[in-house]
Design a protein that fits this description.
single chain, 342 residues, mainly alpha, 15 helices, globular
Length: 342
């Protein structure tokens, strides 16, 4: 009787979680996203930040994370309109965090880090006039790139490192689920009042608009008093809107479930009991706020949500480097095999 290793069991479980997320995304795309973001999201942020802290945030400096933390606070103040002077530079601060995370995994000298940060800020002044700069760093990077692209890279890295066929299969299922949302046209009937969905979705709707335009499904104009009605009609009531929403709901839901499925390997739950109690208390309070008023919950957790995105940047870079190293090792091994055969 065949036995499966712990890694193979996790890969198999993740295939099941992908299919589960995919089916739910087809049936209830808006409801699934709102539920996952409010219930699974807070627990993911809190536990991952704790795990990253134990790992030293994968940077070369002991206190590098403080810089990313300060940027998270400034970005939050700007995005939520608390500090109007920061609104115009919030995107540039995301750009600074993303590139400084790369500096933090290669450079140990603090002086060089400061110089790098200054140069990055000057480069932001050159790029901030371009539309792609705002769309990539303000809309895509903290959202769909974080939950979809980086999750796919983690799956690929795991498959390469573990030489796992089930890992490769899970990557194929991940891609197939994504493709299915755009290849299988299926209608949608909301389970909850559409008015509640639209009201709760205000904080995310720009992502849908940008994805619909990027994928060439429609050409929606920026939100204003004249366009809000037409944009809402497309996003919440057309096939184009359903396709994109299913993709988003799947990406977020599986991103969270993937994290929890690897608990036995990552060991994020092995923290002092006091810390665990605090995490559970904050999580319960957060879910309660979302249940009371979704926008209140969103604002309450915005800082923690953005903080976990920025703190994960160094790990994202190391994962990409790991993929390159694994592929290089495979190619080198093949070359050595050919030489030996000769």
């Amino acid at each position: 009787m065949a036995t499966f290793s712990s890694v193979e069991k996790i890969d198999a479980a993740n295939i099941g979680l992908m299919l589960f997320s995919c089916v739910l995304a087809f049936l209830l795309p808006f409801e699934l996203f709102l539920f996952s973001y409010a219930v699974l999201g807070p627990l993911h942020y809190l536990t991952e930040i704790g795990w990253l802290h134990k790992k030293g945030y994968f940077t070369t400096g002991k206190y590098d994370y403080l810089f990313l933390g300060v940027l998270s606070v400034l970005i939050t103040l700007g995005y939520l309109g608390i500090a109007e002077s920061l609104e115009g530079i919030a995107t540039g601060l995301v750009y600074l965090a993303f590139l400084m995370a790369l500096v933090m995994i290669f450079i140990k000298d603090n002086t060089l880090k400061v110089i790098s940060g200054i140069l990055i800020l000057f480069s932001a002044l050159l790029f901030n006039k371009y539309t792609f700069f705002e769309v990539f760093f303000a809309v895509y990077l903290p959202t769909i790139i974080h939950v979809f692209l980086f999750t796919g890279l983690f799956i690929l890295l795991g498959a390469l490192k573990n030489k796992s066929l089930l890992g490769v299969l899970s990557l194929a299922v991940f891609a197939a689920c994504t493709a299915s949302f755009f290849l299988i046209p299926v209608g949608y009937s909301s389970l909850v009042p559409i008015q509640y969905i639209q009201k709760s979705f205000v904080g995310f709707i720009e992502l849908n608009r940008q994805l619909i335009n990027t994928l060439g499904l429609e050409n929606l104009q920026e939100f204003n008093a004249q366009t809000v009605g037409e944009n809402a009609r497309v996003i919440f009531g057309t096939q184009s809107g359903f396709m994109v929403m299913r993709f988003i709901a799947f990406a977020y839901t599986y991103h969270y479930l993937n994290w929890f499925s690897k608990t036995s390997v990552i060991q994020w739950h092995k923290v002092p009991r006091k810390t665990l109690y605090i995490v559970i208390a904050v999580w319960i309070a957060s879910v309660a706020l979302y249940a009371y008023d979704y926008m209140v919950g969103l604002k309450w957790l915005f800082l923690i949500s953005f903080l976990h995105v920025l703190l994960e940047f160094p790990l994202n870079y190391r994962s990409m480097m790991g993929i390159g190293q694994e592929i290089k090792g495979m190619l080198t091994g093949r070359q050595l095999t050919k030489v030996n055969q000769k």
